[in-house]
Design brief:
This protein has two domains: 131 residues, no CATH class; 191 residues, Rossmann fold. Helix 5 crosses helix 6. The protein has a nine-stranded mixed sheet, covered by helices on one side. The protein has a six-stranded mixed sheet with strand order 13-11-12-20-22-21, sandwiched between helices. The protein is 27% helix and 33% strand. With 330 residues, it is an alpha+beta fold. The N and C termini lie far apart (65 Å). The mean pLDDT is 87. The protein has eight helices and 22 strands.
């Protein structure tokens, strides 16, 4: 009988243990896990708390017999997910996850390691979001920056300026959680945001504008509209935080003006905008009520604005920082 080995980490406040009889496969997944997520390795000899997540890793990608009824949601041309009751299937080339309340299994074969790194990361990110849901953690398409304990979330469709706005604040000395993917949790009275993925998506323009933040080891992401993935460089690397309590939620839009401005968004409209950017909302009825309650709490907790991003986002980060600080102190 092969000896079972494991890798443990803390992700979004949830203890995870990955285990397998295949040491080489586990090592490869553990390296990818640590590269993708803002996670902290924990002592593998320590007992995993009862509220932790366990994920068995094995070789192969054969799916279980498909005798369930569940709507297939196409996440990308090469990735799909299906939910029903308390079980979810996530599938891509060379890998699939079967997650359930009783046990979760991730199967991987050689094809997975031949696909683009961006595809590998996307699969693991979606797998983590599924595995985090039973622990009251829900994904949102957002970036976050913090200053003096105050958190600001930027959430909107891709291309709206989330990353550029966050980089502008970081260049002005702000701390940050993560780019483009966050996780929300709640204790029933307030909502916290958690960093999920490592690295920022960089365009040619952001690389040239924020040269002091860009490292030398950016990784080209094929098929991502000319983007690179890279952690922040310089002193900014040490300013990453794992969690914050949001005080503002900004819905960025690119404005062809010299100066950025904020326009208030009323509660119902803000809730709809947050729903549009929430991962898996309505896909799993078992989690929808919890997710909706959390979004409602978030709207009550924060001030919400359209952030009409002008050229000062690129040219005068101090002015943007002042604008946002005035909004949370008003």
């Amino acid at each position: 009988m092969n000896e079972i080995t494991s890798y443990s980490s803390l992700l979004c406040g949830v203890p995870f243990r990955l285990y397998s009889a295949d040491v080489k496969l586990l090592g490869a997944l553990a390296r990818l896990w640590s590269e993708v997520f803002v996670s902290r390795p924990v002592d593998d000899k320590a007992a995993l708390p009862k509220n932790g997540a366990r994920l068995r890793i094995s070789e192969g990608s054969d799916l279980p017999a498909d005798d369930h009824v569940g709507q297939v949601i196409q996440l990308s041309p090469v990735m799909s997910v299906r939910h029903w009751a308390s079980t979810s299937w996530l599938e891509t080339v060379g890998a699939h996850l079967v997650a359930s309340a009783d046990a979760s299994v991730l199967k991987v074969d050689a094809r997975f390691w031949d696909v683009a790194i961006g595809q590998q990361r996307d699969f693991l990110l979606n797998a983590a979001l599924i595995l985090l849901q039973p622990f009251g953690r829900h994904g949102i398409h957002a970036s976050a920056a913090t200053l003096d304990g105050n958190g600001v979330l930027f959430t909107a469709l891709s291309g709206s300026g989330k990353t550029t706005s966050t980089l502008s604040l970081i260049a002005h000395g702000w701390s940050y959680l993560s780019d483009d993917a966050l996780v929300l949790s709640s204790d029933g009275t307030s909502v916290r945001a958690h960093a999920l993925r490592r690295g920022f998506s960089w365009t040619e323009d952001s690389r040239s504008r924020f040269q002091s933040l860009y490292p030398d080891d950016g990784q080209w992401l094929p098929g991502r509209e000319g983007k690179w993935l890279a952690k922040l460089g310089g002193t900014a690397l040490r300013r990453q935080e794992t969690t914050c309590v949001p005080k503002l939620v900004l819905f960025p839009e690119v404005a062809h003006t010299a100066h950025s401005r904020l326009e208030p968004v009323e509660g119902p409209s803000a809730l709809i905008r947050l729903m549009e950017q929430s991962s898996g909302l309505l896909a799993r009825p078992v989690a929808t009520a919890d997710q909706m309650k959390m979004l409602g709490l978030l709207v009550d907790q924060v001030r919400t604005f359209r952030f009409l991003a002008g050229r000062d986002v690129l040219d005068d980060a101090g002015a943007v920082s002042d604008l946002i600080q005035k909004a949370w102190s008003a």
